[in-house]
């Protein structure tokens, strides 16, 4: 049996403009803006807004070449993925791979908020699922990442 | 300033079959199945699976006539909406309406888990947003609903 995930870490939506989208998520719905950052390697800007133990992530493509940019061009703004927090990401990926789940990332990689891996929506009922390892898990050290101070 | 929402109450995905989808969400990802119920008035079956303070909702249309069924037919399985918990739903709806947000439900109505209202994706960057009132809020009594025992 798998260990249950601990929480919804975030729900990500693709937006044309983070600045314009803050009017809804921060100013109208009242979520707290925690951070806005550029991820040059992924050619996106992202923002995280807190709500309870979870976050809403806004993802804005910064050029036209990425999967996120093509998503925005073809489907428009909207839901992109949901991220669940697990204790040991590599254990989960091994187990899910054995069970036949199609993995976009077969091993943990460095994400903005910790070690992450994506599962293919073909295996997840059309939903792009990201897994992130809880702070202090084994992949943090393996990837040379430092958990944030609580 | 709006009061911040307390948590992501649930993330809803449209599925062809709840039974088939439980293989992913319960058996492979390890979420706890809390309930499966028919909502005859909405012509759907729904399931809630717990993850931290949130839930994943699976929504399966039971006939071909509803918006959810048309969503499934045109877009396939995938994300449907995100639901945020607020303290006073009627206060939020009044405030959001004044701010020009397009409301699908201009007043709280009875949902499976409490008083709810939907905001139109046209006002929410392509995201269908549901608001639910926290147990014990004023709309519970107004709608004759009894909060679940903790």
Q: Would you mind describing this structure in some detail?
A:
Two copies of one chain form a homodimer. With 150 residues, chain A is of the alpha+beta class. Chain A has one domain (7-142): 2,3-Dihydroxybiphenyl 1,2-Dioxygenase, domain 1, CATH 3.10.180.10. Helix content of chain A is 23%, strand content 37%. The first copy, chain A, has four helices and eight strands. Chain A has helices at residues 18-28, 67-75, 89-98, 138-142; strands at 7-14, 32-39, 44-51, 54-61, 78-86, 109-111, 114-119, 129-133. An eight-stranded mixed beta sheet of chain A has the order 2-3-4-1-5-8-7-6. In chain A, a hairpin with a 4-residue loop joins strand 2 and strand 3 (44-51). The longest helix of chain A is centred in the first third of the chain and has 11 residues, at 18-28. The first copy, chain A, is globular, with a radius of gyration of 15 Å. The model of chain A has no long low-confidence stretch (mean pLDDT 96). The A-B interface holds A 1-8, 11, 13, 15, 21, 24, 28-32, 51-54, 56, 76-79, 82, 84-85, 96, 99, 101, 121, 123-127, 129 and B 1-8, 11, 13, 15, 21, 24, 28-32, 51-54, 56, 76-79, 82, 84-85, 96, 99, 101, 121, 123-127, 129.
């Amino acid at each position: 049996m798998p260990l249950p995930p601990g929480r919804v870490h975030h729900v990500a939506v693709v937006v044309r403009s983070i600045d314009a989208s803050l009017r809804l998520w921060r100013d109208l719905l009242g979520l707290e803006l925690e951070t806005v950052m550029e991820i040059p390697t992924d050619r996106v800007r992202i923002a995280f807004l807190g709500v309870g133990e979870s976050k809403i992530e806004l993802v804005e493509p910064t050029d036209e070449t990425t999967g996120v940019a093509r998503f925005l061009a073809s489907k428009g703004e909207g839901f992109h993925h949901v991220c669940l927090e697990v204790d040991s990401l590599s254990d989960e990926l091994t187990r899910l791979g054995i069970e036949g789940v199609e993995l976009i990332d077969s091993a943990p990689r460095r994400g903005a908020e910790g070690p992450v891996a994506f599962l293919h929506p073909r295996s997840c009922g059309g939903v792009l699922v990201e897994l992130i390892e809880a702070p202090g898990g084994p992949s943090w050290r393996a990837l040379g990442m430092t958990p944030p101070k609580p």
